[in-house]
Specification:
The protein has 604 residues and is mainly α. The chain is built from 18 helices and seven strands. Strands 4-3-2-1-5-6-7 form a seven-stranded mixed β-sheet, sandwiched between helices.
């Protein structure tokens, strides 16, 4: 195994998360349909590339005869990567391609399989869901069919989009591991044991199917719409999307994929900034000397966290700059109006009022087009998911963050869950900086004590304590300023009201008009400070920080006790539950801020 080298994030290919395209379909394709099917599949893949031009594509195909191989060949021709999840041991799998009645056909089939396997980035045998499963089964029957079902379920779970070369018919009873069953799993969600939902009320994870209507030799009846391409969507999304659109464009699925493509685009466009901040962000989470204790998969997670964290900070600065600019522009507009009304009634001064408002709308529109607000929150959500995943990995836990994160926010942030799931598979697929299978240099108990406790639990406890105090004191200072500004404005109003009796001769002079301007401006500034605090959610955020600080403090004490007593299982369960609480809090934090985007009406 070659040593892991920290990635150059502005150029490293591994930092881009791919779109994973699963494959299912009939084995008994008709020879005369090959050209038409290749064209249809090629158009589908080209459409996905057009939808996500900055994103690498990975095809997940078991390479069974027929549809699996046809899609794999077209994908390789378009420069996509191929990953092969084998349903059983390779030697046993090849038995399926041998043909006792046609030895020449069998020889060609095995040769084609080995050729494609040699061009794949990686191949592996899928994990089986039953302890009795024997991957070396050579006789056909129910046990062997279940191995194919395991492979199909693996493809369904790990793909973003499933391409199905299917005639559209469902047999009764449905063949185990057949195309119709795999399509149903993708549209309706995987059942147990393939999907473990932490909560029984969770919606099943489902996704789109690109259906290429495909004739087959075992069905003499030609489908009425043979070779047509349509998109089948999960039932949950049918209310918002056309039931069978011809492509993914303008669907909720396309919106989610475009967010993933946006991440890859930002990694490329902000490469220099990511490179400059990469080491700092990486070192703030895990110091360089401690990083030497991580295995390759853990360091891949750390590297991707660092790059995503830099992006989140970049868009956070842009978001805050836009919000501050909008409030300053609003105050400037109020100032011009007050000057015109009470001090300098000139048309040029009046014209500055709508001009500043137009500038404000321009700034707001620019921010909306660049999506600063949502990108900051989305990338922060992804970074926090990667943070928890990293420390779960270090603690020796096999839990998948995507199964626990953003359960209540699936519609807006489903792409983040998919990105996390894809990231975890990249080392297994040979698509990350390290090689899969590198052993950790520490046992779990030692890793919990030396890394998880100080670098996550204690560090997060200190962060939330400091942030809670900072935001609470900041909120008190802002409220003091707001009260002072309003009080001064009221005082100026009283002074103006009393001025005829105090100094009658000065009632109409310039000083009087200046005071009138400030009387109107100061409460407006106080309102702007209050509006800015409300947009940034400083008050609710301070309460959340204090609560999380207490949570991490309890976790820190109990984890130390569990480790001192040698209770590894208790320590790991505590870390798992702490991660769940951190993910829940971060999901709520993201949605709280998503409900507070910059708005012209609120700023004004």
């Amino acid at each position: 195994m070659k040593p892991h080298v920290a990635a150059e994030p502005h150029a490293a290919e591994f930092l881009r998360l791919p779109i994973v395209i699963g494959v299912t379909g009939h084995r008994d394709l008709r020879d005369q349909d090959t050209a038409l099917l290749r064209q249809a599949v090629g158009d589908c893949l080209a459409g996905l590339r057009k939808l996500c031009p900055h994103t690498p594509m990975v095809v997940l195909s078991p390479l069974a005869e027929g549809a699996d191989r046809l899609v794999a060949e077209v994908a390789l021709a378009q420069g996509m990567s191929l990953v092969v999840p084998l349903p059983m041991a390779r030697s046993a799998y090849e038995e399926d391609f041998a043909d006792a009645s046609d030895a020449e056909h069998g020889t060609r089939s095995v040769a084609q399989f080995n050729d494609l396997l040699g061009r794949a980035t990686r191949h592996f045998e899928v994990p089986h869901m039953r302890s009795s499963a024997d991957s070396a089964i050579t006789t056909h029957g129910p046990a062997r069919d279940l191995l194919y079902l395991d492979a199909g379920a693996y493809v369904v779970r790990h793909c973003h989009v499933l391409i199905a070369l299917w005639d559209g018919e469902t047999a009764d009873p449905e063949p185990v591991g057949g195309t119709s069953q795999i399509v149903r799993y993708r549209l309706n969600g995987l059942p147990e044991p393939y999907a473990q939902m932490p909560n029984p009320l969770d919606a099943a994870a489902a996704g789109p199917v690109i259906h290429v209507v495909t004739p087959r030799t075992s069905n003499r009846q030609m489908p009425a719409d043979a070779f047509a391409v349509r998109v089948l969507l999960p039932e949950a999304s049918l209310a918002a999307d056309t039931q069978h659109p011809a492509s993914l464009a303008n669907t909720a699925v396309a919106a989610a994929l475009s967010r993933l493509d946006g991440l890859n685009r930002d990694l490329a466009q902000l490469g220099d900034e990511v490179r400059d901040g990469f080491a700092t962000s990486r070192g703030q989470l895990v110091q360089p000397d401690a990083a030497g204790a991580l295995d390759d998969a853990q360091r891949d997670t750390l590297d991707r966290y660092a790059a995503t964290d830099v992006l989140a900070q970049h868009f956070q600065r842009r978001r805050r700059a836009v919000l501050v600019s909008l409030f300053l522009i609003a105050m400037l507009a109020v100032l011009f109006f007050e000057i015109y009304a009470h001090l300098l009634p000139h048309k040029g001064v009046l014209a500055m009022y709508p001009l500043t408002l137009l500038i404000g709308f321009g700034v707001l529109r620019f921010a909306q087009l660049r999506d600063f607000h949502n990108k900051h929150l989305d990338y922060r959500a992804l970074a926090e998911g990667l943070r928890v995943q990293l420390f779960w990995q270090i603690a020796g836990l096999s839990a998948d963050v995507s199964d626990h994160y953003l359960r209540k926010q699936r519609s807006e942030l489903e792409w983040v869950r998919e990105a996390l799931r894809t990231h975890l598979r990249l080392p297994d697929w040979g698509l990350a900086t390290g090689q899969a299978g590198a052993a950790s240099k520490r046992n779990p108990a030692e890793a919990l004590r030396a890394l998880v406790l100080p670098l996550w639990v204690s560090c997060q406890r200190r962060f939330y304590e400091n942030a809670g105090v900072r935001d609470h004191h900041g909120m008190e200072r802002r409220e003091s300023w707001e009260r002072a500004l309003v009080a001064v404005g009221v005082g100026i109003g009283l002074l103006i009201w009393l001025s005829p009796w105090i100094a009658p001769a000065n009632h109409a002079d310039t000083t009087h008009h200046v005071l009138v301007v400030f009387m109107g401006l100061l409460p407006a500034v106080a309102a702007a400070l209050s509006g800015y605090a409300e947009r940034m959610a400083f008050g609710p955020q301070a309460k959340r920080y204090r609560w999380m600080a207490a949570l991490y403090a309890r976790a820190e004490r109990r984890l130390q006790v569990a480790l001192n007593q040698g209770h590894l299982d208790d320590a790991q369960r505590l870390v798992l539950e702490l991660g769940n609480e951190a993910l829940l809090e971060n999901g709520d934090w993201v949605m709280m801020h998503r409900d507070r985007p910059p708005e012209a009406s609120k700023v004004g």
